[in-house]
Amino acid sequence: MTSEQGGPSGRSNRPGGVRRRDDAGRERNRGTGRNRTESAPSQRTRAADPARLVAFEVLRAVSGDDAYANLVLPARIRNHHLDRRDAGFATELAYGALRGQGTYDAILARCVDRPLAELDPAVLDALRIGVHQLVAMRVPAHAALDQTVGLARAVIGAGPSALVNAVLRKVAARDLPAWLAELTAGLTDEVKIASLVHSHPEWIVRALRQALVAHGRDVSEITAVLEADNAAPVVNLVALPGIGSLEEAFDAGFTPGPLVIDSALSSGGDPGRLASVRGGTVRVQDAGSQLVARALAGVELKSGLDGGEERWLDMCAGPGGKAALLAALAAERGAWILANEPSAHRAKLVAQAMAAVPEDAWTVRTGDGRDVGRDHPASFDRILVDAPCTGLGALRRRPESRWRRQLSDVSELGPLQRELLNSALDAVKPGGVVAYVTCSPHAAETIAVVDDALRRRDDLELLDAGAALDAASLTGDLGAGNAAGKAAGNVLSPLPTHRMTAQLWPHLHQTDAMFLALIRKL
């Protein structure tokens, strides 16, 4: 060794004797004012925290592979063996970052020296995770910075982690109210302001404002609707009637659902850990979906007067949630249901969903629902048309959908929705009932489709869907019907259709925004 490095004994040749080293054997900084800090390279987090890694992997799957967060997240949680607490943290972090993406990207755009589109997508996802922790979670700023930079260093690289560190330090300089004040300064357009504050695309804000008016609500409720979209939804379970039991769920901390019989709620935990859920006798299903299925099953018919077996149809059955509930209800009544699904892969999912129901109560058909009316005219007593739609009513459960959907999707889906409803009206028996359902409150996907059917045909009668939902509920008074509070001559629905249809809302019913129209064939 040289004299500057010290001899074998570890002593320095300088005056003063022993070299300054800490307990880890590292040489201390010389001078009294140069202590190492947490930001020193030797102290920076170099491993990815498992919960944050899960959230990052979910965001990467969503943005890179067009995956759905609700399908990816449970598998990632299991793969990383997260306990209940870490699973809850990962869920809030992933879903929160996805819901807040619009607001967070606007904040990041003020802190990055280039367009966000020029960033590596993985870096942008890491930044979104960091922003959510800094402005919307009870995570200390130093922990959010350290752990997110460590995540970036571990899974992206040292160079990008430096960018993440620099950007997030700028973000941490303000809290969320201060950032929102800066983002909206000088704006007067209510839609633009709501879009930034509540992290929804502008076209969706406009669509939801119009939907409130179309369904008899006040446009001032838009803030409550957007806030409900951004709230973490509870997990809803349904026990298949006559087959499933909720005892295991209640033992695991679930509570009885207040809206629907045989339902349960929970705000945490993985329902996939319940044996009853894995076995298919208890299913994860939003209370709104349960209500519309039960409303159809409960409506009075004028067909089947010969005393024969009722025949039901789920025209758009995939992936099988409503079909399984309807099949169980049908089995209890000695009825039979045909579950139709055009995709072979999804048809298999439907069969799996219905496997817990006695096999003689159901059949799965793989085919185009638009052909059922021609192939099976006047053949069914009850038909569910859960039509493909934009899904604007389920944005709280599918947070990535708001960034994937486009305004053009509404007009593109319209012809399919009308063709499916017309096919169902051909397939239902005289006296039978068709339930037209969408998980969207958009007027073009709901009352406009039903209006068109009533215009084209003179053999239809619109039933009171709000009353049917009330009869299917535990409360008996959901207030989901559109009869109350309607202004005459509503330009969005000139026919009386809107006075007989029903619309559930997340801010009012804590369900997805399910639309229901019940149409009887004369």
From TrEMBL:
This is rRNA small subunit methyltransferase B. Pfam families: Methyltr_RsmB-F (PF01189), NusB (PF01029). Residues 211-522 form the SAM-dependent MTase RsmB/NOP-type domain. Belongs to the class I-like SAM-binding methyltransferase superfamily. RsmB/NOP family. The active site is at residue 439. InterPro entries: MeTrfase_RsmB-F_NOP2_cat (IPR049560), MeTrfase_RsmB-F_NOP2_dom (IPR001678), NusB-like_sf (IPR035926), NusB_RsmB_TIM44 (IPR006027), RCMT (IPR023267), RsmB/NOL1/NOP2-like_CS (IPR018314), SAM-dependent_MTases_sf (IPR029063). S-adenosyl-L-methionine binds at residues 316-322, 341, 368, 386. Residues 19-30 have a biased composition (Basic and acidic residues). The keyword DNA-binding does not apply.
